[in-house]
């Protein structure tokens, strides 16, 4: 076992504090990664505060990990010492079910193993990226292309793939009108990716406060959802709406903005239940759907896509002792657009 410095939540809703954790020894197919940067995802806050249900404590959050390989097991073939790599939201799966065989490890029928707040194959709790090192099986480690800086690449391991996967699945591209609902950590990546896929992109945000940013990142249009006129002007406009909002929405109102056969896809996960009038989907043969992250193969595809088009996440780099402040700022929508921890400060 290796002792590693980390930041952890000792209990639900407790402030995160500096501590040490134990990482397992590097096994035959394992990779030891010196973590350089770790993104802060809203999911970290939901889980550290048990907003999504009972959690495992102490908890070291963080599933947007970018770093450098410092040691490999004797059987490792996919990565070598010195490689720039990333780790996303999962670190294992059953690898045998039909979904795993199809490259959809995120939907493993036995449940994938989360990078944190989960139990590994040995029944030990997993600890995430708010730490200086991590040991991960080579099959769940991604290559960070040379065209991406590690700090801007870290958020791609969640925010990037969480938006890329549904945009690809629902065929966002030339000739398609796509709306990104919410202009935050996920939303700003959705705008960039949808734009580079060739879609006509509209941002739907509570206000016009971030309009200049949205247009700069690739949006063609920007509307405020606080203005009732928006729902009149845009009725029946979109092939796809990707909702990144993690608060309950008036789904009937937003479904009215879809064309016939359009899809409203949720990647934001509110803590509270939402209600729906089924006539909102029956009329117009509309789809209300959800999407998780992507599989390992698709995540690598996303990283390569971002590098090819020359973009990463828009980030604010912080010290580890600013994590608790950053959590509050995320809840107040006061970040443009992803906090990234410089793990050298842990």
TrEMBL record:
KW Oxidoreductase (keyword) present: yes
InterPro entries associated with the record: ADH-like_C, ADH-like_N, ADH_Zn_CS, CAD-like, ER, GroES-like_sf, NAD(P)-bd_dom_sf
Record-linked SMART domains: PKS_ER (SM00829)
Keywords, alphabetical: Metal-binding, Oxidoreductase, Zinc
Catalysed transformations (reactions): a primary alcohol + NADP(+) = an aldehyde + NADPH + H(+)
UniProt feature coiled coil, ranges: none
Domain Enoyl reductase (ER), first and last residues per copy: 14-341
Essential cofactor(s): Zn(2+)
EC number: 1.1.1.2
Record-linked CDD domains: CAD1 (cd05283)
Single GO MF annotation: alcohol dehydrogenase (NADP+) activity
Broad EC category: oxidoreductase
Alphabetized Pfam families for the sequence: ADH_N, ADH_zinc_N
Highest taxon of source: Bacteria
PANTHER family cross-referenced by the UniProt entry: ALDEHYDE REDUCTASE (PTHR42683)
Record family assignment: Belongs to the zinc-containing alcohol dehydrogenase family.
Protein name per its UniProtKB record: alcohol dehydrogenase (NADP(+))
Native organism: Streptomyces zinciresistens K42
Record lineage: Bacteria, Bacillati, Actinomycetota, Actinomycetes, Kitasatosporales
């Amino acid at each position: 076992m290796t002792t590693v410095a980390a930041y952890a939540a000792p209990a639900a809703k407790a402030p995160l504090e500096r501590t040490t954790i134990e990482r397992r020894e590097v096994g035959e197919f394992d990779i030891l990664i010196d973590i350089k940067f770790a993104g802060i995802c809203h999911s970290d806050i939901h889980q550290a505060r048990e907003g999504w249900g009972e959690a495992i404590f102490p908890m070291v959050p963080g599933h947007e990990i970018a770093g450098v390989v410092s040691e490999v097991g004797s059987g490792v073939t996919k990565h070598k010492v010195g490689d720039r790599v990333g780790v996303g939201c999962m670190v294992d799966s059953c690898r045998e079910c039909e979904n795993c065989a199809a490259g959809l490890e995120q939907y493993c029928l036995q449940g994938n193993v989360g990078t944190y707040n989960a139990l590994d194959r040995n029944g030990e709790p997993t600890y995430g990226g708010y730490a200086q090192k991590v040991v991960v099986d080579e099959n769940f480690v991604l290559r960070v292309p040379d065209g991406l800086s590690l700090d801007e690449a870290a958020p791609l391991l969640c925010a990037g793939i969480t938006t890329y996967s549904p945009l690809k699945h629902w065929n966002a591209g030339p000739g398609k009108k796509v709306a990104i609902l919410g202009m935050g950590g996920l939303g700003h990546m959705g705008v960039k990716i949808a734009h580079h896929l060739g879609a006509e992109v509209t941002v739907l945000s509570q206000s016009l406060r971030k309009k200049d940013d949205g247009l700069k990142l690739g949006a063609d249009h920007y509307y405020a959802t606080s203005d009732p006129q928006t729902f009149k002007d845009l009725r029946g406009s979109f092939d796809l709406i990707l909702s990144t909002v993690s608060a309950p929405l008036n789904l009937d109102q937003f479904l009215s903005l879809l064309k016939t056969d359009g899809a409203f896809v949720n990647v934001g996960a509110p803590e509270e239940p939402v209600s729906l009038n089924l006539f909102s989907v029956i009329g117009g043969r509309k789809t209300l759907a959800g999407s998780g992250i992507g599989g390992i193969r698709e995540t690598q595809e996303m990283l390569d896509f971002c590098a090819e088009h020359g973009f990463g996440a828009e980030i604010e780099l912080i010290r580890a002792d600013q994590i608790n402040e950053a959590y509050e700022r995320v809840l107040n929508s006061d970040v443009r657009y992803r906090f990234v921890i410089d793990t050298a400060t842990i």
